[in-house]
Design a protein that fits this description.
- The strands form six sheets. This protein has a six-stranded mixed β-sheet with strand order 11-4-1-2-3-17.
- The protein has 715 residues and is of the alpha+beta class.
- The two termini are 51 Å apart.
- Helices cover 47% and strands 21% of the residues.
- Helix 4 (167-178) packs across helix 12 and helix 8 crosses helix 9 (307-315).
- It comes from Stieleria varia.
- The chain crosses the membrane at residues 382-401.
- This is Competence protein A.
- Keywords: Membrane, Transmembrane, Transmembrane helix.
C-alpha cells in the first residue's frame, strides 16, 4: 500500500492537550495515532501555572510518541487572531496580492510589521482568463508577539511547528472535507442562490467558536461563554469547590438531586442560547439569502446531559453532535474507548491534519515569515557550504599551479608589484586610522546633538499635555459671550482638580478586572448616547487594556446641564456626549517647534491619550449658587421704605432680584484617561508615515479602479 508522510494535528486546550496523527493510505485519510492528556487543573484556574501544565503535557506526548518526528500543525484560539472576508472588484489574479495588502491595512488595527498575516481566495471563486470575477478573499492575522507566545511551549520542547492555524478555520476545513466534499467538487457557487448553510458550534472551556458555512463561504465569531461557566454557576449557587462542581456537571444524572443541578445551570444554558441566537441573527442580517439547515456541536461540553436537546428546542434547528467523522478511517484508533469518549474534542485536530496533508480547502498559515526564512536557510546551508568549499578548492588549486609558476619565471615583474602593494597597504592603514578617529568624533557629536534636542523636547512635554487637555475640554459659545443666566441651560464643564499618577505596568496595576468591566459598560453607554451601533467585535477585543508604562490623569469637575426635561442628555449622559467624545474624536493643535507660526493637528490617540473613562455614575444633586440677578440695593431700598410685609418677614419673597442664592441641580464627575508619553518628533514621524501609507493606499485603490474599468471595458 502506498503510504504518505504522517501529520500531527495538536490543539492545546484549556483543560487538555489533544493530538491526532493522520496519513493518506490509498487516497483515504487514516488516523494512526492519537493522544488525550488532561491537565491536573484547568489553565484558567487561579492556582494553575499554565506554562508548567502545558510543558508537562507536551513532555508526555513526546515520550508516548517517539518525539514527534512527523510534520506538526497546531491551532490557536479564535479570539487570539483576526479573520476577515471581503469581496474584491473584478481584477487580474496577479493583482490580488496588492489589493489584499491594501485591505489588510484597512482591516487590521495594528501596524502590519507587528502582525503575522496571510490570505487565501475562498473556494467557488470564479476565475476566467486570468481575471477573478466573482470571488471572496479570506484575510487572517495575529499579533506577532501572540504568535511567538503560542509557539513558545513547542520551542522549549524542541518541536518544530510547520503550520499555525486559527481553530475556527481548522473546524471549517474539517466540515468542508468531511460533510460538504460532494458539494464543493460538483457545484458552482451562485451568490444569488447559495446552498444551505450549517452552523458549527464548538464549545470550549472558557469560550466558544461559532462558524456558519455553506462550504464556499465562512462567517465566524468567538463567544465569551464555555463549559467553565456551568461549573462556576454550580460553585456560586451550591457553595462547593470547583473540583466537586466540575464532577457534578459531568455526572449530573448520577447526582442525588439531578433536577437541582440542571435548575442551577439553567441561567448559563439561557446565556448560551442567547449568544447563539444573537450571532445567527447578525449573520442573517448581512446574508439575506442564506438558509440554515442544521446545527453541529462539538467540544467535550456537548457531552453534558440535555445540552443538545436544549439547543435544538430553543434554536429551532436539527442538532447533530460531531462524535464521529464520515471520511476518517483507521478503526485501530477510532475504536479505542478513550478516543470514542472524547471524539467530540478532536474536530480541530482532524482539520489541522487535513491541512498538513494538503487536502483542505484553506491552507493559510500564521507561522512568522522570519521563522520560515531561517528554516529555508538552514535546509540549504549544507549544500551552500559544499558548493563554496568546492569553489575554494578550485581557486586554491588554480593559484598554486598557475600563479606560483608565473612568479618563479618572472621575478622582476613580481618585485615591482610587491613594492606597490606594500606602499598601498601602508597608505590604506594610515587612512583607516584617520577615518576611525573622525568617525568616533562624529559619533560623539551626533550623541551630544541628540541629547540636547531630546532634552528640549522633554521639557515641553508636560506643557503640551496641559495645553492638549485644555483644548479638548468642550467649550460652548453664547450669543453675547457671557454665561447664560439660567444655570440649567449652561452646557459648560467646570474642572476643579487635576491629578496624575505614574504606573510601571498600566494593565496590571491600573486596568484591573473591575476597571475593565467599568470601561466596557461606559463604552456601551457612549455608543448609545452618540447614536452609534456597537462594533461587531466584542469590546474586550477592541480594548484589551493599555500595554506598558504610562500616566493616569484624573480630572474632577461638574456641570449644571441637568434639567429633568432633558432625558438622555443630562447628568452622566452630558459628560459622555461631549467630554468623553472629545477625548475620542477631538483635535489637538500644537505649534511646530521648527516654525512656531505653524500649527500641527493631532488626534488624542496620536498624542498618546487612550482609555477615557468616567469613573462614577451619580445623579445630580441640588446646590446653592450665587443669583446673577440679585440686586442688594433693591433689598436695602425696600427695607428703608418700610416694605416689611408678611412675605419679607417669612422669607418667602419670590422676586428674583431679592434672592441672593438659587438652588440648581449639579452633576459632579470623576474622569480618568491614560497618557503614554511620546515626543513631538515621534508624533510628526507617525503623521508622515500615515500620510505615506494613505498615499500608497490611494495609489492601490486607483490601480484597483483602473483594473475594474478595464474589466468593464472588456465585457
Amino acid at each position: 500500500m502506498a503510504n504518505s508522510s504522517s501529520v500531527w494535528g495538536i490543539e492545546i486546550g484549556q483543560s487538555a492537550l489533544k493530538a491526532l496523527r493522520c496519513s493518506i493510505v490509498d487516497g483515504e485519510i487514516v488516523a494512526d495515532a492519537f493522544d488525550y492528556i488532561e491537565y491536573p487543573k484547568i489553565l484558567s484556574q487561579p492556582e494553575a501555572v499554565p506554562e508548567e501544565l502545558i510543558a508537562d503535557a507536551l513532555l508526555q506526548l513526546l515520550e508516548r510518541n517517539d518525539g514527534l518526528n512527523e510534520k506538526v500543525c497546531i491551532s490557536v484560539p479564535g479570539q487570539s487572531g483576526l479573520a476577515k472576508f471581503f469581496k474584491p472588484p473584478p481584477v487580474e489574479v496577479k493583482k490580488i496580492a496588492d489589493l489584499v495588502r491594501y485591505e489588510a491595512r484597512q482591516q487590521i488595527p495594528f501596524d502590519l510589521n507587528d502582525v503575522v498575516w496571510d490570505y487565501q481566495m475562498m473556494p467557488g471563486s470564479m476565475v476566467e482568463e486570468g481575471y477573478a470575477l466573482e470571488s471572496e478573499v479570506g484575510l487572517f492575522a495575529m499579533k506577532r508577539d501572540q504568535a511567538y507566545r503560542q509557539l513558545a511551549p513547542f520551542d522549549r520542547a524542541n518541536v518544530e511547528v510547520d503550520v499555525v492555524q486559527l481553530a475556527p478555520v481548522a473546524l471549517y476545513n474539517m466540515v468542508a472535507y468531511d460533510r460538504m466534499n460532494e458539494r464543493l467538487e460538483s457545484e458552482m457557487f451562485d451568490a444569488d442562490n447559495p446552498p444551505p448553510s450549517s452552523v458549527l458550534l464548538s464549545i470550549g472551556t472558557d469560550s466558544s467558536d461559532l462558524i456558519v458555512t455553506n462550504g464556499f463561504r465562512i462567517w465566524q465569531r468567538s463567544m465569551p461563554i464555555g463549559g467553565n461557566h456551568f461549573t462556576r454557576q454550580l460553585t456560586k449557587d451550591l457553595k462547593m469547590t470547583f473540583a466537586k462542581a466540575e464532577h457534578l456537571k459531568r455526572n449530573a444524572r448520577e447526582a442525588v438531586d439531578p433536577k437541582l443541578i440542571f435548575q442551577t445551570m439553567r441561567p448559563v444554558f439561557n446565556d448560551l442560547v442567547t449568544e447563539v441566537q444573537r450571532s445567527i441573527g447578525f449573520f442573517r442580517s448581512i446574508h439575506k439569502k442564506a438558509e440554515i439547515s442544521e446545527l453541529l456541536i462539538t467540544g467535550n461540553t456537548v457531552k453534558m446531559p440535555g445540552l443538545a436537546a436544549y439547543l435544538g428546542k430553543n434554536l429551532g434547528f436539527e442538532v447533530h453532535v460531531l462524535d464521529r467523522f464520515n471520511r476518517l478511517g483507521g478503526d485501530d484508533v477510532l475504536s479505542i474507548p478513550t478516543f470514542r469518549d472524547n471524539a467530540t474534542t478532536f474536530a480541530v485536530c482532524y482539520g489541522l491534519c487535513l491541512q498538513g496533508l494538503g487536502v483542505s480547502q484553506m491552507d493559510a498559515s500564521l507561522i512568522p515569515q522570519e521563522i520560515k526564512t531561517a528554516r529555508m536557510i538552514r535546509a540549504k546551508k549544507p549544500w551552500t557550504i559544499a558548493a563554496l568549499a568546492a569553489l575554494l578548492i578550485g581557486m586554491t588549486g588554480n593559484y598554486f599551479f598557475v600563479q606560483s609558476n608565473w612568479r618563479k619565471t618572472h621575478p622582476d615583474k613580481w618585485s615591482r608589484s610587491f613594492t606597490a602593494v606594500s606602499t598601498a597597504t601602508a597608505a590604506a592603514s594610515e587612512h583607516r586610522e584617520k577615518d576611525k578617529t573622525l568617525d568616533a568624533k562624529l559619533t560623539y557629536l551626533n550623541k551630544v546633538g541628540e541629547e540636547i534636542a531630546g532634552d528640549r523636547e522633554s521639557r515641553l512635554t508636560w506643557m503640551e499635555v496641559i495645553d492638549a487637555i485644555n483644548q479638548l475640554i468642550p467649550r460652548f459659545e453664547t450669543p453675547d459671550g457671557k454665561p447664560l443666566k439660567n444655570h440649567v441651560d449652561r452646557k459648560d464643564f467646570y474642572i476643579t482638580q487635576f491629578d496624575t499618577k505614574f504606573y510601571e505596568d498600566l494593565k496590571t496595576d491600573w486596568y484591573t478586572e473591575l476597571l475593565a468591566s467599568r470601561f466596557k459598560n461606559e463604552m456601551t453607554d457612549w455608543y448609545t448616547v452618540k447614536g452609534k451601533p456597537l462594533p461587531a467585535e466584542p469590546l474586550e477585543t477592541l480594548y484589551p487594556g493599555p500595554e506598558g508604562k504610562g500616566w493616569v490623569i484624573e480630572l474632577r469637575g461638574y456641570h449644571y446641564y441637568n434639567s429633568e426635561d432633558r432625558i438622555g442628555e443630562r447628568g452622566s449622559d452630558h459628560v459622555r456626549k461631549y467630554f468623553t467624545n472629545a477625548f475620542f474624536e477631538g483635535e489637538i493643535q500644537l505649534p511646530d517647534p521648527r516654525d512656531p507660526a505653524k500649527k500641527i493637528t493631532f488626534t488624542p490617540q496620536q498624542f498618546g491619550f487612550s482609555y477615557p473613562l468616567m469613573l462614577n455614575v451619580v445623579e445630580p444633586v441640588k446646590v446653592k449658587v450665587e443669583n446673577p440677578d440679585f440686586d442688594p440695593d433693591l433689598v436695602k431700598s425696600g427695607v428703608a421704605a418700610g416694605m416689611r410685609g408678611m412675605a419679607a418677614q417669612s422669607g418667602q419673597d419670590k422676586d428674583p432680584a431679592k434672592q441672593q442664592y438659587l438652588e440648581v441641580p449639579r452633576h459632579d464627575f470623576v474622569f480618568q484617561l491614560v497618557w503614554q508619553p511620546n515626543l513631538f518628533s515621534e508624533r510628526v514621524k507617525v503623521l508622515e508615515e500615515e500620510a505615506a501609507a494613505a498615499a500608497e493606499a490611494a495609489e492601490a485603490e486607483k490601480a484597483a479602479q483602473a483594473a475594474a474599468d478595464d474589466s468593464v471595458a472588456m465585457n
